[in-house]
Design goal:
By secondary structure, the chain is of the alpha/beta class. Helices cover 47% and strands 17% of the residues. The strands form two sheets. A seven-stranded parallel sheet has the order 3-2-1-4-5-6-7, with helices on both faces. It has a six-stranded parallel sheet with strand order 10-9-8-11-12-13, with helices on both faces.
């Protein structure tokens, strides 16, 4: 690297926990290619640990559902103002956006006016809903790095520069479970509850999961439940909900890496989202549930263009995993679905194999490396 490239500045914006994690891996990969880079932006602890100067903490911005955005609006607007101000004063050499579309595209418009190139990593799910935004992305973004195989065709069709980089989850240590190794000595059926990573989502989904678990505890003689707690969620928040809804069924909370939960489970009940892909990569059968406020749901339904909401089913192009949405995501319905799956041993085995096929479709490891190449190339 010559002296001129020594102090290139990069702004990176990740509004949510998963984006924060993938962003941090990207920052480290870019540093390996050019150690003279300066990073600032919006993110959480992972980006901070990777040496990014955090201008706004992402935990103040995360929202789920359309109506929920309303409550966070002042924080979101403040965050946008800070990002735009820094684009003007610092004039970075590159803006990297990770997911978080409404916020990020708004900031991208300012970058475009200032002539700052924009790389979008982990594209918003515009193929699923509000496809009108693709035009906006085409106008504001210089390159899109996508992590789902079918997204590439979508952007190609709209003549937007795109690269399929593979899914960053394949860089983590999620490996297909070796059931022989992980099975507890006594014959216990372990079911995982993955209620999501945001408080409002957990408040909506965990009680339903716990009620379903209570029903299952009455029907399976030796069953144990493990609850996955995302790092950003406070333990006492989870415990409060468990005390209220858990009854006497035994629950163990595991914090942090969801892989620790998946490797011990026969099956998981999961909130729709990235965690379903993590389950697929580890070959863990699942039931996907999804509930938002009725207003968010009907608004969303009107805009949605895809048959399934589970990423696993979208990649497979068919429903290989049961999806229970809104009213269908009732404790009784969830419990019945889980029982049905657990009682079909050969069906579970088939499903494990299908899930490992999903893993192959996600590309090989090295997503962060490939994005870093694109990013450094754009500097």
């Amino acid at each position: 690297m010559g002296p001129f490239s020594a102090q290139k500045r990069v702004m990176i914006i990740a509004g949510e926990a998963s984006g924060d994690l993938h962003g941090a891996k990207l920052v480290r990969a870019m540093r390996e290619k050019n150690n003279g880079l300066l990073f600032c932006g919006i993110g959480g602890q992972s980006l901070k640990d990777a040496g990014v100067n955090i201008l706004v903490d992402a935990s103040k911005l995360a929202v789920v559902g359309i109506t929920e955005t309303f409550f966070k609006m002042p924080n979101l607007l403040k965050g946008m103002a800070v990002a735009k101000k820094n684009l003007k004063t610092l004039h970075p050499d590159l803006l990297i956006l990770i997911d978080f579309p409404d916020f990020n595209l708004n900031v991208a418009a300012t970058a475009k006016k200032l002539g700052i190139p924009v790389l979008y990593y982990i594209s918003p799910q515009i193929w699923a809903w509000r496809p009108g935004r693709v035009k906006k992305i085409g106008e504001l973004v210089n390159h899109v790095a996508v992590i789902l195989p079918f997204e590439k065709d979508f952007y190609r069709k709209h003549e937007i520069p795109v690269t399929f980089v593979g899914h960053p989850l394949l860089d983590t240590n999620l490996s297909p479970q070796d059931t022989a190794l992980e099975k507890p000595a006594e014959d216990v059926t372990v079911v995982g509850l993955l209620p999501g990573s945001r408080d409002r989502e957990i408040a909506r989904l965990l009680p339903v999961m716990l009620d379903a678990a209570r029903i299952l505890a009455g029907q399976i003689s030796n069953v144990k439940f493990i609850i996955s707690q995302a790092p950003a969620v406070k333990k006492n928040y989870m415990e409060e909900i468990i005390n209220k809804h858990g009854g006497s069924a035994g629950f163990e909370i595991i914090t942090g890496d969801v892989g620790k939960v998946l490797e011990r489970c026969e099956l998981v009940i999961a909130a729709s989202g990235t965690v379903t892909l993590e389950a697929a990569i580890s070959g863990t059968p699942m039931v996907i549930i999804y509930k938002v406020s009725p207003a968010s749901y009907w608004l969303g339904r009107a805009m949605v263009r895809v048959k399934h909401i589970g990423l696993v089913n979208l990649i497979a192009g068919k429903e290989i995993i049961p999806e229970l949405l809104q009213d269908e995501a009732s404790p009784r319905r969830i419990a019945d679905t889980v029982l049905e799956m657990l009682s079909d041993v050969s069906g579970l085995e088939r499903l494990r194999n299908e899930l490992l096929g999903i893993k192959d479709a996600l590309g090989g490891p090295g997503a962060s490396e490939r994005v870093a190449d694109i990013a450094v190339g754009m500097l």
